[in-house]
Design brief:
The complex is a heterodimer of chains A (121) and B (109). With 121 residues, chain A is mainly β. Helix content of chain A is 0%, strand content 52%. In chain A, strands 2, 4, 5, 6, 9, 10 and 11 form a seven-stranded mixed β-sheet that branches. In chain A, strands 1-3-8-7 form a four-stranded antiparallel β-sheet, with no helix packed on it. In chain A, a hairpin with a 4-residue loop joins strand 5 and strand 6. Chain A is globular and about 40 Å long. In chain B, the strands form two sheets. In chain B, strands 2, 4, 5, 8, 9 and 10 form a six-stranded mixed β-sheet that branches. The chains are: A mainly beta (121), B mainly beta (109).
Chain lengths: 121, 109
């Protein structure tokens, strides 16, 4: 059964870079069948897609975050990572990683358990 | 980019049927998927594609779509169905993006 697990610092200072890693177990990230995405949820608010990556390294970003986001993949470690630069308090959120299919009609499943990142000095 | 609109809150009496809706232009081109999120937990997929349920999701959950509106129906709502529900679809802006609805808080009375 495929599982995803987010990891990284729970506290980041304003103006610094948030860095998270999603480790995939129970399956290979090196698959042409799936994409891998990051989604976040500020406390008490809804879900927001941040961006996605294909095993080949092709990336797709939310236009509202594109200037600050970098997503990368390490197939040798079965991991993909998120970097969000110049963070502010508005970036405080639970960050999730999830998988979706490469077909036109797809969906996010499964999801990681999420990790709370707080931006504060 | 596309937007998906959901009612913020809906309530249903125990055992009754409730429909949660999601509206957006992207739904004219793509199916919505639906996720249930309980407090402190990650979202869980409950409906995908035309009307498909993942393993482990009760058959009281069903999905439908017409025009720019997708619906999630719970037939015979149970206390454990009380949660936030989010719809989701691909973005039609052409950047391989995704969009989520704002979520609907379902209360089972």
């Amino acid at each position: 059964q495929l599982q995803l697990q987010e990891s990284g610092p729970g506290l980041v200072k304003p103006s610094e870079t948030l860095s998270l890693t999603c480790t995939v177990s129970g399956g290979s990230i090196n698959s042409y069948t799936y994409y891998w995405g990051w989604i976040r949820q500020p406390p008490g608010k809804g879900l927001e897609w941040i961006g996605s990556i294909y095993y080949s390294g092709s990336t797709y970003y939310n236009p509202s975050l594109k200037s600050r986001v970098t997503i990368s993949v390490d197939t040798s470690k079965n991991q993909f990572s998120l970097k969000l630069s110049s963070v502010t308090a508005a970036d405080t959120a639970v960050y999730y990683c999830a998988r979706y299919g490469s077909t036109l009609y797809s969906w996010f499943d499964p999801w990681g358990q999420g990790t709370l990142v707080t931006v504060s000095s | 980019s596309s937007e998906l609109t959901q009612d913020p809150a809906v309530s249903v009496a125990l055992g009754q049927t409730v429909r949660i809706t999601c509206q957006g232009d992207s739904l004219r081109s793509y199916y919505a998927s639906w996720y249930r999120q309980k407090p402190g937990q990650a979202p869980v997929l409950v409906i995908y594609g035309k009307n498909n349920r993942p393993s482990g999701i009760p058959d009281r959950f069903s999905g439908s779509s017409s025009g720019n509106t997708a619906s999630l129906t719970i037939t015979g709502a149970q206390a454990e169905d009380e949660a936030d529900y989010y719809c989701n679809s691909r973005d039609t802006s052409g950047n391989h993006g995704w969009v989520f609805g704002g979520g609907t808080k379902l209360t089972v009375l």
